[in-house]
Specification:
Largest sheet: 9 strands, mixed
CATH superfamily of the largest domain: DD-peptidase/beta-lactamase superfamily
CATH class of the largest domain: Alpha Beta
Structural class: alpha+beta
Shape: globular
CATH architecture of the largest domain: 3-Layer(aba) Sandwich
CATH topology of the largest domain: Beta-lactamase
Distance between the termini: 17 Å
Number of helices: 18
Number of domains: 3
Length: 677
Amino acid sequence: MRRLLAVGATLSVMVAGAVLPAAGAQDDRMGWDRAGAPERVLRDGTAEEVGLVARELEQIEPALRDGLTREPTPFYPGAVALVAAEGVVVERTAVGHAVRWADATTELPAEEQVEMRTDTIFDLASLSKLFTAVAVMQLVEAGEVDLADTAASYVPAFAANGKEAITVQQLLTHTAGLPAWINLWSAPDETAALQRVWDVTPTSTPGTGYLYSDLGLITLGEIVERVSGQGLDSYVAEHITGPLGMGDTMYNPPAELLPRIAATEYQATPARGLVHGVVHDEAAWRLNGVAGHAGVFSTADDVAVFAQMLLNGGSYDGSRVLEAATVETMMRDYTGQLSSSHRGLGPELEAWFYHDVLTSAESAGHTGYTGTSLVIDPHTETIAILMTNRVHPSRDWGNINPVRRAVARAAGLARPMTGFARGAAWYSGIGDLLDRSLTVPATLSGDGELLLDLWFHTEPTDVLHVEASTDDGATWQPLTGTVAAGDAVRDATDGVSGDGEDRWWEGRFELAGLTGDVLLRLRYATDTFYSGRGVYVEHLRVVDDGGPVVDDWDPADRATVVTDGWTRVTADGSAVPTAPADALAGLDAALERHLASGGVAGPIAHQLATALHQAQDRLDRGREDAAARVLERVLRHLDNPRRPDTLRPDARSELRGQAVLTLDLLAPVPVAIADAV
């Protein structure tokens, strides 16, 4: 292998001021400290307005439609999905039917079926718990409830059978040791049903473990009623949904709304028949449709308003329902030390099984048994909502988690990558049961090191293994190494996995003692369930005896890389172009997206657009050298923005990388340059 790199003649322009992956950058993403968050009011718009790739969002509707035809039974009769980012609703889709079945086996005549609409009202099931949690936290803010107080101090009967020390906080975080549920529907009335809750015995010592429980939220709903002097439905309407303008959100919807409401299950036990327009959950039904764990009906758009309120730090369109500090308190992880499940004060955190690509330590949301889910990513201000009537006509027809993940995945992948200095990176891909490898040969003298600039977001059990073979791939051994970003350093000897916090990391792996012809391999292996975005490798180098041996920025070295499943992609997820015209088209598309989002504005916007038009003209006339000179001017504009130019870092990163990629394809004669590059 060479110690000098063969690169395009324009490299001296590229390297000056190059946007290298931010391996040393601190994690400065905005999480749930929303005190300084922008006050956004949701509006409809395009993906491009917020810098997203529409192509990825277009995958949502086919994913929803696939759920309609799954064999042997559909996932659901109908569904609605909504995605919003930075206050802009960029996707709203409805498929299938809100009402399709007369009973568990009889399909309604076509003329009696009701098509799903984007404003269909759904039984939210356990998403109702989020409304109860907000109500409790409002009372905490008002000084009327304390999280450390015992629940029995508000509901004395709750103290029975060893529950006297259970606190309000333990109920909110599902650490009270209560059973998941008990039969309430067979109680003769609401009073008798509540008495069954008060009489229940914990199944474990409170505060020692996590067990998701409806009973804790039922108790919290009762606390809200006793402290406020209002029914839970009246309290939520007056203090939450009313101020937020959520006109389609309520308990016990009136009969005139029935044509807009999605039907749920045909229930034989209890003998309720087709449940339509009344709460599906049997316990909430026995509690007259109003309970802390279930009972709220709403639309995708109203749920989006609720989510945006949280992203705004507790307010929406001039109405404040929580203080920003309270929102932050709700979104802390209170159960990670007790369980693999992560809970805030109500919301579920870091739930890979439906947050998918949006998962982080601070991703928040909830699911509902009827087929609903909400995911909120505070780092990108993304909201992903799925509403289905999956229990219509039967709860036994299937688990919709694959569709929940599909919606979150599309929302996450729609955000382009940043930090591609050369406009491209190796990408592992995304999915379950993957075993994908990227292998590079190197000739070593025994004092080498493998260097990687990489970005990763994987489920903890999906691992990038870094390995070497000295017997032509017959056997492999793990390499000792670390990955580092700023002050953060992680041992990577057993592989690289987890949430890389949207940062670029520098990987350093020892090759000491390896001599002769050696194969180096990156192998990405995933398990049966759940995925993150995957792994990107922007730059791969091998140095030995103080000098370069392999550098995949050198086209000749890159040609020696053998891939099995890995691909080279641009920042927006497209396959890396091989023709200058295609690369220039990609650069133009990226500029259009950043112009629409406001990432590029002012005089530089006109300068860049004019330059790209000129480059295209030169290319159309076969003057590749002239097109390259124009693109060098593009790089100078990007490297030296002036007032009153607007050039957001993500826009500069993507545009610069795409320009360098195009120049690499235009460079007619490779030249040798020094190691210092």
